[in-house]
Amino acid sequence: ILNVEQSPQSLHVQEGDSTNFTCSFPSSNFYALHWYRWETAKSPEALFVMTLNGDEKKKGRISATLNTKEGYSYLYIKGSQPEDSATYLCAWISSNTGKLIFGQGTTLQVKP
Amino acid sequence: ETGVTQSPTHLIKTRGQQVTLRCSSQSGHNTVSWYQQALGQGPQFIFQYYREEENGRGNFPPRFSGLQFPNYSSELNVNALELDDSALYLCASSYHRGEQFFGPGTRLTVL
Predict the structure, then answer these.
(1) Do A101 and B33 touch (CB under 8 A)?
(2) N or C, which terminus of chain B has less Cβ within 10 Å?
(3) pLDDT score recorded for residue A2
């Protein structure tokens, strides 16, 4: 069974707090890891596509790191804002199948 | 705006009925993937179509079937609906193994 797990399941923070989530995935047959941001009633929106061990990507206040050897990725949000409230999904792609396997998501709520 | 659209937005069916969900791909994409998201879970891969042929399938029974048309739009058909089929169904289009762009989903409720 190929599991992708995210923690925590949910998170409540105050505006201005920095936060981070974890995505764990199988360390073998790695092809890519995707992070998505999913706001209620909207489509999941791709944040990052990460392919190389040691990759670090940044978009504004959001950044992500990747460790393919140990099978984890961290997503960081610096100075959280209410508009960051969403569910953050990671998805692992195996080199064998090329298909996305999603974690269950981390739901972030930022209170003003 | 990703350009991927799905219809209908919401749907209510009863057990045993059949349903067809539709997905229109983003321009230039030749691959469509379908996912089921049950409450509290991440999206689960149902199957993928690449250039009109099934290109991989997740752990779903044969009553889940699909089609991809020459314009790369796609349908998901579910026969003999069960209560557990109630979920959000997402489609995503891509150019082969490239980045997937998601539609807004169809919410199916089976009573």
Answers:
(1) no
(2) N
(3) 64
- Whether residue A89 and residue B42 make contact (CB cut-off 8 A), yes or no, is yes
Instruction: Specify the 3-state DSSP secondary structure of A84.
Output: helix
* B contact residues 72-91, partner A, Cβ 8 Å cutoff: 90
Query: pLDDT tens digit string along A42-93?
Result: 899 999 999 999 999 999 999 999 999 999 999 999 999 999 999 999 999 9
DSSP labels for B70-93? TTS-EEEEE-S--GGG-EEEEEEE
Q: What per-residue confidence (pLDDT) applies to B49?
A: 93
Inspect the interface and report whether the beta carbons of A46 and B99 lie closer than 8 Å.
yes
Cβ–Cβ under 8 Å, residues A24 and A5: yes
Write the pLDDT tens digit of every residue in B55-76: 889 999 999 999 999 988 999 9
Share of chain A above pLDDT 90, in %: 85
What's the CA dihedral at B23, B26, B29, B31 to 10 degrees?
Answer: -20
Q: Do A98 and B99 touch (CB under 8 A)?
A: no
Does residue A66 belong to the interface with chain B, where contact is any CB pair within 8 Å?
no
- Using a CB-CB distance cutoff of 8 angstroms, which residues of chain A are in contact with residue B3? none
Question: How is residue A109 written in tokens?
Answer: 């709520």
pLDDT for residue B28: 87
